[in-house]
Amino acid sequence: MAGPVPELTTRAAACAEALRAAESVLLASHIDADGLTSAAVATTALSRAGIDHEVAFEKQLDADAIAGMASRAFDTVLFTDFGSGQLDVITDHEAAGDFTPVVADHHQPADAETEFHLNPLLFDLDGSTELSGAGTTYVLARALGETRSDEPRAAGEAGANRDLAALAVVGAVGDMQDSTGELVGANRGIVAEGVAAGVLEETTDLALYGKQTRPLPKLLEYANDVRIPGISGSERGATAFLSELEIDLEGENGWRRWVDLDSEERQRVASGLLQRAVARGVPADRIDDLVGTTYLLTDEPAGSQLRDASEFSTLLNATARYERADVGLAVCCGDRDEALAEAETLLSNHRRNLATGIDWVKREGVTQADHLQWFDAGERIRDTIVGIVAGMAMGTDGVRGDRPVIAFATKNETETKVSARGTHRLVRSGLDLSAVVGEAARALDGDGGGHDVAAGATIPTDSKAAFVEHADALVADQLGEA
Ligand code: C5P
Ligand code: C5P
Ligand code: C5P
Ligand code: ZN
C-alpha cells in the first residue's frame, strides 16, 4: 500500500513524530466498530512505542466534547475515526494553545487544515470505500512502528505493527467498505499485509452474514442482502431447501453452522442457492452478489464470534453503541475471558434490538417523499442503532432499495438524531448523503456529516418536517431529478 499513496505514508510519519514528542496523549475515538478498532490499533501502537496515553470514547464529537478534552491535562489529542469533520473547532483550540491535534480519520473534512491530519480524502482516496478510520489509524501505527522516521525501511521489508492489519480490516468491514463484495483500494494493501503477517486469511465464499455462528437455517433465512424467493425470510423455506439437498441440520453439538460443513457440502448448498435464484428469476447482477470475499482472523478459533471480520464488527457495535466501548476495546486488545463473555451478552441484546427495530419499520412502513423515503422511530429505536436498522431495512418489504432512506430517533428532550443510508448504486448516480444531511441540518440549527453512502445529524426535534423537505430537494439536485 505504501506504493500507491506515498503521501499518506509521509503524512503518517509526521503524525507519528508529533506523538513521540508528546508528554501525554489523550486518544479519543468514535463509538462504533470502526472507531473501536481504530482505538485498539492506536492504543497498541502507542503502548509499543512507549507513549503514555489514556483512551476516551465519544458518541459524537461536538464542540462541547472537544472543549471537555481541551480542559484535560494532555498536551496532545489523537482523534481516530472522527475529527476531520470538526477540524474547524479543533484548530480553534490548537490556536488557543489547548492541545496539539493529531487526526486519523476518513470522514469529510470541515473547511480548516492542520499539520498532523491524516485522511485518505486528502490524497485522492475514497474515504467511504477505500480506507476506513481503522485503516487510516493502521497507516499511522505502521509509522509509529518505524524506529526512525528519517530512515525508512528497504522495500519489501516488513516493519512492526503489521499484525494490527487484522483489526484494520474489521474496522473497514464494520463500516461496510466491502459492500461491493470485497475490500478495494488502499484496503487491499492492508489485507495483503495482514495475510503476509499471518493474521488474516481471505477466501471466496458465500456472501452471507453469520457463517461462523448462525445455525444453517438462520443463515439462509436472514440473508436479506440478496433475497432468494422461498428461502429468504422463511424459516420453513430455508429448512426445506437444506433438507432437499440432504444436508444434516444437526451435528453432535446441536445445530450445524456453515463452518461445520465440509467443502463438498458447502459446494452443494452454494450451487443449490444459485440454481434456486436463477429458477426464481433473480437478476444476474444480484446473483453475483451471492458470492464474495470473506476475511478471517487466523488467530481466532473457527465458529467464534471473532473469526469472521463481519461478525467481529457486529460484536463491537453491540458494545460501543450501548455505552460499553470499554468492553469492545478489551476484546480487540486480546481479552478472551471476562470481556468476551460480557460482549456476547451485549450481542444477544443488540441482535434482539435490531430484529425488533426492523420488524417495527416493516410493520409501520416508511413514507415516500418525492426523491427519498423516511420514517420516524421516535423512542422505539435507540438513536445509536437507528442507522444500522435503516440500512438493514432497505430493500425489505415496503422499503424501497433504490431510494435513500432517512430515519429519525429521539435523542433527548429537544433534539432528534437523523440517520441516512443510500446504496453504492445511488452514489454512482450522484448521491452524497454527507452533503445532504449536513446542509439540511445546518440550515435548521443542527449539524451533521459522514459519508456519501451513510450519514447522520442531530437536529431540533421541531424541525423534522422541514428537514425532510430540505433533504428531498438536495437529493433531487444531486440525482438530476429536480
Ligand atoms: O462513523 P461512520 O463511518 O462510522 O459509520 C459508518 C456507518 O455507515 C456504519 O454504521 C455503516 O454500517 C454505515 N455504512 C452503510 N453502508 C455503507 C457504508 C457505511 O450503511 N456502504
Ligand atoms: O451490526 P452491523 O452494522 O455490523 O451489521 C452489519 C451487517 O450485518 C448488517 O447490515 C446486516 O446485513 C448484517 N447483520 C445481520 N444480523 C445481525 C447483525 C448484522 O444480518 N444480527
Ligand atoms: O449514526 P449513523 O450510523 O447514522 O452515522 C452515519 C455516519 O454519519 C457516520 O459516519 C457518522 O460518523 C456520521 N455522523 C456525523 N455527524 C452526526 C451523526 C453521524 O458525521 N451528527
Ligand atoms: Zn469509520
UniProtKB/TrEMBL annotation:
One of its GO terms (molecular function) is nucleic acid binding. InterPro entries: DDH_dom, DHH_CID, DHH_sf, DHHA1_dom, SSDNA_exonuclease_RecJ. Residues 25-148 form the DDH domain. This is Single-stranded DNA-specific exonuclease. The keyword Hydrolase applies. It comes from Halococcus hamelinensis 100A6. The lineage of its organism: Archaea, Methanobacteriati, Methanobacteriota, Stenosarchaea group, Halobacteria. Residues 208-291 form the DHH-CID domain. Pfam families: DHH, DHH_CID, DHHA1. Keywords: Exonuclease, Hydrolase, Nuclease. Residues 381-476 form the DHHA1 domain.
